[in-house]
Design the sequence.
C-alpha cells in the first residue's frame, strides 16, 4: 500500500513540476492518506456556487470564499459548477473525503475540523495563487478523490511571545500559516522571565509594567536589546479576537502561564511572592536579583495566582491550560525557611516534592475553572500530576518514553528535532545548544529508530514544534516576524508530515521533491519568508563548484566586486574563500555559502591571561575552540582585564573580541575598552566595547590585545566569553 502511494505521489510530483503554472497539483503537504487521480478536472469560475446547508459550517464557507473569490452561496446544489461542504457522522471528527469531478467538488467531513482539512487540501489542488486571495479565474482543480484523516489528534506549534513580543496582527498571520499546514493547536507561551504579555484586570501592572524590559523597567533586559526598553502585551479583547480567529481555522489555542520557575516577570512586580529570605550573592547576577521561582509554601501566593489564572481561563475555551513546570531552580526553595520546614515536616529532602505540591495546588485551581493542566516533562514525575494532564516531552525521545510509561498523554517535541529556534546551519542565526539542523533532520524523526513500539506510538497524543525566542537577538537573528518565519519554514512542513502520519512513505527525496516542486510556490504565495536550502560548495584541484539542492537558481559574487553572476560552471581560482554563492527562488534567497577558508580561524595561536581567576570547569583554554566558552571564577571589577598574546603578529581582514556573553549584560564587562600592542610591550587604546564586543577591521598587526573593564558586576556571576574571531587575509 505504502509503495503504491509513493509511486502515485511521485507521478503527481513530476506532473506538478511540469504543469506548475496552471496546476499546483497533488504534491500535497502533509501527504494525504489516500489520493487517486483521474482525468476529470473541475474548473473554478466566478459562477461557481458554494453549497452548504449545515449552519455550523458557515464560518468555513466564508473562509473558503475569501480565497476562492467565487460567485454565490446556496443551501441546495445546482446541477453543476459547485463546491459543497457537508458533514457525515460516520467519519471521525477530523476525517474528510474530497472528490473532484467535472461538475463539482464535494467535501464531506466528520466534523468542523474534517471539512476544514478538506478545504486546505482543495487549496493545494489549485494554483498556488489561491493563497494570495487574487487567483485568476477560471482555475483548474486537479481531478482526484481523496480519503484522508490525521494520524495524531494533537498537531501543535508553540509561539514564544514572552521573550520576543509578536504583534497581534502577526500572530493572526502566523495562525493562517499553521492552518494551511493542518496544524490544529497553537501553544501560546504568554509569560516568561523576559515579559508578561497578557492583560490581567485584577493585576494591571503585570502587563503594563512587566510587558516591557530594559531601561527603567524593573524587568532587566536579559538576552534582549542590550538595555533598550521594549516589549508589548495583548489586551483581553485582543486575545479574544485571536482565539476566535484561530477557531475558524480549526486551531485551538492553549495558553501557557509558566510557573513556578521562569517567573521573573511576575516576581519583579510582586517581590513578596518570592521565598522568605533576604537575597544572597547567589541570587544576584550582574547587579540584579534574578530569582525567578514563586515560593511554594506562601499561602497568599495561591490567592494571587488564582486571581490571575481565573482571568486567563476565561479568555480561552480550550479545556487544557499549560502551567509550565520546567526548569525550576530548586535552590531558592532550599534556602527558604518555610519551604524547608514544609519538606522537613514530611520527611522529604527532594525539592521536586515541593514542585509536585505546587502543581497539585494549581491543578485544583484550574479544575475550579473547568480546566485540565498541561505541563513540561519535568513536572510529570512527582506523582501528583493528574492523569488527564497532557505532558509536553521536550528533553529527548527517551524522556517522552518515560512520560508515556507513566500513562500520560504525551506530546512529542524533543529539542533535537523540534526546537526551531536552533540554527539551521553552522553560520546561520539561531540557538546552538540543542543542535544545528534544517528541515531534513526534522523530517528524519522516526519512532522505530528511537526505540518505540507500534503500541507505544498508538498512545502518542501528537507532535509539537517550538520557536523559543530569547536567543533571537543574542544569536544573530532579529525580532521581526520575518525571522520567525525563516526559522520555522519549511521546518513546519516536516512537522506537519509527522503529525499527519508521514503518508509519503518517509523517504527524504520524495518529501523534498514535493516541497520544492510545489510547496515553495505555495509558501511564496502564502506570504511566508521561508528558508531556501543553500547550495553545497566544493573545492578540488583549483576548481570551485557548487551543487544545486532544489529548484532555485544559483548565483555568486566575488569579494571586491559588486557584480552578481549566474553560476553556470566551476570557477578556477586559488582563493576559493573570496566567492559567495546562494540560491534564489522567486523573491526568496537562501543563505550565502562559501568555502571554509572564508571563515574565521583561531590562528595564529595565542595565550590568554587575566587579572581574574578562571572557572575550574570552564577554564581559559576553552577559548582555543569555537565550540566552547570560558568563564571567570568571579565577577569583574573596574580595571579587570583579559590579555591575548599572539605567538606571531596577527595580520587579518578583521578580528572580533568578546568581553562577555552575547547580549547578556550580566555576563559581560558592563563597559570597557581595548588596547592593542604591535610589539607586545607598548599598548594603545583603540576602541570602546559595545555590547560586550568589539570588531576591528583591517587592523594593524597585533602582537597583543588587552580588554579592560571600566565597570563592575556585583554578585557571583562569572564573565563568560568565547574565542576572538579572526578572519584571515586572502
Ligand atoms: C528550554 S524547553 C526552555 C526554554 C528555553 C529553551 C531554549 C523548556 C520547557 N524550557 O525556556 O527558551 O530551552 O531553546
Sequence:
Amino acid at each position: 500500500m505504502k509503495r503504491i502511494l509513493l509511486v502515485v505521489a511521485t507521478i503527481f510530483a513530476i506532473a506538478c513540476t511540469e504543469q506548475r503554472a496552471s496546476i499546483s497539483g497533488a504534491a500535497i503537504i502533509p501527504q494525504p492518506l489516500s489520493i487517486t487521480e483521474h482525468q476529470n478536472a473541475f474548473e473554478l469560475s466566478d459562477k461557481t456556487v458554494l453549497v452548504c446547508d449545515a449552519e455550523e459550517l458557515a464560518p468555513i464557507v466564508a473562509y473558503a470564499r475569501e480565497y476562492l473569490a467565487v460567485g454565490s452561496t446556496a443551501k441546495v446544489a445546482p446541477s453543476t459548477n459547485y463546491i459543497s461542504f457537508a458533514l457525515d457522522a460516520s467519519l471521525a471528527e477530523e476525517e474528510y473525503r474530497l472528490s473532484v469531478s467535472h461538475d463539482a467538488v464535494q467535501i464531506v467531513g466528520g466534523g468542523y475540523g474534517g471539512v476544514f482539512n478538506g478545504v486546505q487540501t482543495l487549496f493545494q489542488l489549485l494554483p498556488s495563487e489561491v493563497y494570495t486571495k487574487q487567483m485568476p479565474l477560471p482555475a483548474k482543480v486537479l481531478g482526484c478523490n481523496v480519503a484522508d484523516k490525521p494520524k495524531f489528534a494533537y498537531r501543535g506549534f508553540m509561539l514564544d511571545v514572552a521573550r520576543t513580543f509578536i504583534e497581534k496582527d502577526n500572530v493572526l498571520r502566523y495562525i493562517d500559516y499553521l492552518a494551511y499546514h493542518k496544524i490544529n493547536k497553537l501553544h501560546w507561551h504568554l509569560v516568561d522571565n523576559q515579559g508578561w504579555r497578557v492583560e490581567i484586570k485584577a493585576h494591571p501592572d503585570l502587563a503594563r509594567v512587566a510587558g516591557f524590559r530594559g531601561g527603567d523597567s524593573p524587568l532587566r533586559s536579559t538576552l534582549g536589546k542590550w538595555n533598550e526598553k521594549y516589549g508589548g502585551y495583548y489586551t483581553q479583547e485582543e486575545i479574544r479576537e485571536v482565539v476566535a480567529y484561530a477557531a475558524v481555522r480549526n486551531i485551538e489555542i492553549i495558553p501557557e502561564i509558566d510557573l513556578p520557575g521562569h517567573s521573573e516577570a511576575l516576581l519583579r512586580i510582586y517581590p513578596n511572592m518570592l521565598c522568605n529570605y533576604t537575597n544572597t550573592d547567589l541570587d544576584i547576577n550582574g547587579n540584579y536579583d534574578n530569582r525567578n521561582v514563586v515560593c511554594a509554601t506562601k499561602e497568599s501566593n495561591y490567592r494571587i495566582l488564582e486571581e490571575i489564572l481565573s482571568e486567563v481561563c476565561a479568555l480561552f475555551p480550550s479545556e487544557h491550560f499549560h502551567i509550565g513546570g520546567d526548569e525550576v531552580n530548586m535552590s531558592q526553595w532550599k534556602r527558604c525557611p518555610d519551604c524547608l520546614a514544609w519538606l522537613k515536616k514530611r520527611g522529604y529532602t527532594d525539592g521536586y516534592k515541593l514542585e509536585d505540591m505546587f502543581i497539585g495546588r494549581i491543578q485544583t485551581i484550574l479544575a475550579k475553572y473547568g480546566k485540565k493542566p498541561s505541563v513540561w516533562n519535568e513536572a510529570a514525575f512527582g506523582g501528583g500530576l493528574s492523569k488527564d494532564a497532557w505532558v509536553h516531552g521536550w528533553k529527548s525521545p527517551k524522556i517522552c518514553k518515560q512520560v508515556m510509561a507513566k500513562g500520560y498523554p504525551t506530546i512529542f517535541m524533543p529539542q533535537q528535532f523540534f526546537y526551531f529556534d536552533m540554527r539551521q546551519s553552522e553560520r546561520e542565526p539561531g540557538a546552538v545548544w540543542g543542535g544545528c539542523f534544517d528541515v531534513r533532520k526534522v523530517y528524519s524523526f522516526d519512532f522505530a529508530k528511537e526505540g518505540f513500539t507500534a503500541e507505544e506510538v498508538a498512545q502518542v497524543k501528537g507532535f509539537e514544534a517550538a520557536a523559543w525566542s530569547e536567543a533571537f537577538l543574542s544569536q544573530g537573528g532579529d525580532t521581526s516576524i520575518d525571522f520567525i518565519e525563516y526559522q520555522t519554514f519549511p521546518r513546519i512542513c516536516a512537522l506537519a508530515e509527522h503529525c499527519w502520519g508521514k503518508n509519503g512513505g518517509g523517504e527524504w527525496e520524495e518529501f523534498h521533491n514535493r516541497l520544492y516542486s510545489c510547496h515553495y510556490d505555495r509558501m511564496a504565495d502564502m506570504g511566508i519568508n521561508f528558508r531556501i536550502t543553500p547550495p553545497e560548495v566544493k573545492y578540488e584541484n583549483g576548481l570551485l563548484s557548487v551543487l544545486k539542492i532544489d529548484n532555485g537558481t544559483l548565483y555568486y559574487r566575488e569579494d571586491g566586486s559588486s557584480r552578481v553572476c549566474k553560476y553556470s560552471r566551476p570557477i578556477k581560482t586559488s582563493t576559493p574563500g573570496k566567492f559567495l554563492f546562494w540560491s534564489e527562488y522567486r523573491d526568496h534567497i537562501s543563505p550565502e555559502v562559501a568555502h571554509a577558508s572564508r571563515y574565521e580561524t583561531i590562528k595564529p595561536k595565542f595565550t590568554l591571561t587575566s587579572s581574574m581567576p578562571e572557572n575550574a570547569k570552564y577554564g581559559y583554554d576553552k577559548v582555543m575552540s569555537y565550540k566552547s566558552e570560558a568563564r571567570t571564577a568571579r565577577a569583574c571589577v573596574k580595571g579587570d582585564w583579559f590579555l591575548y598574546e599572539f605567538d606571531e603578529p596577527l595580520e587579518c581582514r578583521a578580528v572580533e573580541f568578546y568581553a562577555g556573553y552575547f547580549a547578556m549584560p550580566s555576563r559581560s564587562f558592563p563597559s570597557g575598552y581595548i588596547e592593542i600592542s604591535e610589539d607586545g610591550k607598548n599598548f594603545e587604546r583603540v576602541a570602546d566595547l559595545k555590547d560586550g564586543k568589539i570588531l576591528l577591521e583591517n587592523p594593524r598587526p597585533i602582537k597583543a590585545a588587552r580588554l579592560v573593564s571600566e565597570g563592575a558586576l556585583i554578585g557571583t556571576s562569572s564573565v563568560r566569553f568565547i574565542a576572538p574571531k579572526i578572519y584571515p587575509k586572502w
